[in-house]
Predict the structure.
Amino acid sequence: MNWWENEFLWVKKNKLYLEDLQAEQLAKKYGTPLYVYSRQKVLANLRRLRQAFEPAPPGLEIRIAYAMKANSHAGLLKALLKEGVFIDAVSPAEVEKAIKAGFHEGRILFTGTSLSQEDFERVLAHPGITVNIDAFEQIESLAAARRRRRIKSPVRVSVRWNPGLGRGFSSKTVTAGERSSDGTPIKFGVEDSRVIETFKRLQTLKFLPVGLHQHLGSGWTEEDFPVAVRAVDRMIKKAKELQAAGFNLECLDFGGGFGPKYLQEERLFPLEEYAAYILGKVENSRLGIRAIIVEPGKYLVAEAGILLVRVEYLKKNYGHLFACVNAGTYNTVPRPAIYKEAYHEIVNVSQVNGSKKDRITVAGHLCETADIFGVERMMPRPQPGKILAVLMAGAYCRSMASNFNLRDIPQEILLGSV
Ligand code: LLP
């Protein structure tokens, strides 16, 4: 069995199947490039996540707020809606898409950065949303937007603080701390010393402060566990300071970040231990917290999507062998072009395994050197016309795709509804 096989993606007679459909057949029927998603796999991941938090004591609600920036396919949103999931939205358009999919305002948390008053006005068209403040400096324009909308009922707010430490699989996805690992100043969250002042200002302006939020970064593996739990400790300490200052919080939001397995040798983030740690700390804290929020993106959807592409020809150049495909990374799976650490397994769908393997670089059709899906992968040599599957394409692929070179973004299909 290949390390990446699962209930969505499996191999029979050396051919790749997506649920019970042959990948080759799907490519033939719908054309390539093509994104294929599995609702079943998303729901299985959701069940695993819920199980991790199952030991929660009665009276402590666990809210899973899906980070829809990872993939906002309407069919996936609807499937998650049915399961009682909440939404983490980061732009007015994401809020509007969640509302359109059927999410109740009270189940949407809006966390934006570098926002305009117009952004807030659009979001407050749905006044039941919880607005997660990213800066003390955002408060006045939120208040102005509330006036413009003539909202009299209390608007629920929480504060995203920056606990001073962060973790991510790439320096570009570390979202807390003073600087990222490559020295980039981190723009997110309210710094430690200004958290109480931010709560006080919100209270003065008659907002209803309900929670404290942090998000450390994206793509954690086992190595990131010690930092993740240190950040949990910091959150509890901060919530206690807030309690002492008279703010009794309803919820603590630990953000997302825990990754699925992108690489064979990668060790998974110990989710059960992390959940147990959070639950233990919250219970012992006597903070009177009523809900814990986590905001998974990748964890739920990355494994539940693939991209199918067709090999146009094999090109030899200075000793390299390229499989040139009919898609560009930026228009489909941009992650390997953006993050040097991003890895997506690539599979020849009509001959998954083979004793004879070649060293193949899978190149796209864009005019940019970074337009490479995979560098020097050992795989059976695919013939022109054959289909390759780029795995782990369910998260941050379609949602980050552009029309660079005026290439189209491929169509998406959701298995079970086609
Ligand atoms: N909550 C907040 C406030 C976030 O900013 C994010 C992701 C998440 C939750 C979900 O994180 P996840 O569980 O998916 O790691 N484009 C990058 C990922 C950037 C994530 C940004 N924020 C990538 O392709 O890896």
User: Anything to note?
Assistant: Residues 67, 70, 88, 111, 173, 175, 215, 218-219, 255-257, 295-299, 335, 396 surround LLP (CB under 6 Å). The longest helix spans residues 225-244. The domain at 85-296 is CATH 3.20.20.10 (TIM Barrel). The mean pLDDT is 97.
